[in-house]
Amino acid sequence: MKIPLPGKKVLPYLLHGFTWGAIILLTTYFFISGNRSDTNALWHNYRNLILYAVIFYFNYLVIIPKLFFGNHKLWYFTAALTLIIILTLTLNFSFRRQPPRPDFNPGFNQEQPMRPVPRIQSQRQGMPPSEWPRPPMNLPVYNFFITALLITGISLGLRFSDRYIEQEKQHKEVEREQLNTELAFLKNQINPHFFFNTLNNIYSLVQTNVNDGQKAILQLSKLMRYLLYETDKEIVPISREIDFMKIYIELMRLRLTPKIDLEVSFPETYPDVNISPLLFLPFIENAFKHGISNRTLSFIHIEMDVRQDEISFHSTNSLTVNNSKLGEESGIGLENVRKRLRLLYPNNHELKISKEDSAFNVLLNIHLESTPVND
After folding, report:
1. Residue 302: which of 293, 319, 289, 314 has the closest Cα?
2. Does one domain contain both 159 and 285?
3. Residue 74's domain spans which residues?
4. Rg of the chain (C-alpha set)
5. 3-state secondary structure (DSSP) of residue 40
6. For the chain, is the Cβ count within 10 Å smaller at the N or the C terminus?
7. What is the count of structural domains for the chain?
8. Beta-bridge partners for 262
9. 158 and 261: one domain?
């Protein structure tokens, strides 16, 4: 349970109210079920609950943030113990101020008078009630002290839990901002070399085949529109992502030679599930960047399968002398997609990247039992 600041959600308030309300109701129920007629004992129990609440919230809201988290742990334990001792002595003093009553029937954690034995009963004969021998009162004081220590430990544990959750939330926010920055860099990284080469290819294509050149320009404009307007969203339909990858591959195909074997397999029919954008592009870009050679035979094979609960992506490309270190120096693209997958699909993805003697393989499975994390 977390004590919220003003303006935040009211659920933590409700949880605290429900917890203390339940404790009060249980206290009242146990008192009534014991057929006790002394209502003063019930009010004594309520008083103890108020003192416990004071210990809990003063510890939770004041001395833990100020002292314990302020690197003054010795002062914290001193202050917490002092608070408990003061309230315990106050409780003990209130017990001693109360006159004994022969019909006193206390509730739990209160003064527990012993049933008179014949010897004590004989001592009471001829004496006014105010002078009767008092029963031992150490038990309720000890109970209060031990319970107060327990409540102090609970408040400390809850405060630690709240702080850990807050730190994790801040860490995720920082990581998300960093990933957004890297994603923007990734989109910008696509632009220079890709658009330069593509425009050169389109220029050459226009000189030989005007119609094909015009189609290529149209595809390039669609690609740019997707990068500019669609990738800022948290999730996009997989159909748009597939269309984007198809356009990207077709434009990259313009500069391939007959020595390069390019095989692409996307599903013809599939459920249009949602996915975070640009998760697969780094692998395709990496394959075209490192998997082709104009001097020797090379290949790029890309395939994808889309089901209602899972998306599978597999790519493999050849390794030549020039890209033998692929995977060791894969750049920001692959590292970016690793981080994004860990954040967006922490327990719902499997990414396997392997390098063989003649091929670089990527296998990515994304399970769609739950939507990407958006908090």
Report:
1. 314
2. no
3. 11-111+133-169
4. 37
5. helix
6. C
7. 2
8. 300
9. no
pLDDT digits (tens, 9 = 90+) for 201-231: 788 778 777 887 888 888 888 888 888 888 7
Calpha distance 339→181 (Å, rounded): 12
Read off the tokens for 284: 């395709």
What's phi and psi for 133, nearest 5 deg?
A: -60, 135
Region for 115 from its dihedrals, namely left if φ exceeds 0, alpha if ψ lies in -120 to 50, beta otherwise = beta
Q: Where are the alpha helices (DSSP H) in the chain?
A: 11-33, 39-58, 73-97, 118-124, 138-208, 210-225, 238-253, 281-290, 331-344
The whole-angstrom separation of Cα 309 and Cα 206 is 43
Could you tell me where the beta strands, DSSP code E, fall in the chain?
A: 236-237, 260-265, 274-275, 298-306, 310-318, 349-355, 359-367
Residue 3 in domain = no
Q: Are 289 and 252 in contact (CB under 8 A)?
A: no
Q: What is the biggest distance separating any 2 CA atoms in the chain, rounded to whole angstroms? A: 128
> Does a structural domain hold residue 246?
no
Q: What type of residue sits at position 102?
A: P
Q: Name the DSSP class of 300.
A: E
For residue 236, what are the β-bridge partners? 275
Whether 126 maps to a domain, the answer reads: no
Cα–Cα distance list, 253 to 194, 248, 274, 302 (Å): 12, 9, 27, 13
The tens digit of pLDDT for each residue in 163-208 reads: 888 888 888 888 777 777 766 666 666 556 567 767 877 887 787 7
What is the pTM for the complete model shown? 0.54
